[in-house]
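ok trying again, last paste got cut off:
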Amino acid sequence: MLTAVRDNVRRLIQEGKTMEEVVAAKPTQAFDEKWGKGFLPPDQFAKLVYMDLSPNLP
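nice, full thing came through this time. structure:
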């Protein structure tokens, strides 16, 4: 799950998507039923992955 979400977010970043566009693309959707009900909502998780991978953030 972690590597699939990372790969989804990485692909979207490479396409030039902003954080908001990445979140809107729902890169975690395939896993939300099983993993998306914890303390960290899917949108927040996608933002964290984006921030970790994005070359445009300090």
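cool. The mean pLDDT is 94. Residues 2-53 form one domain.
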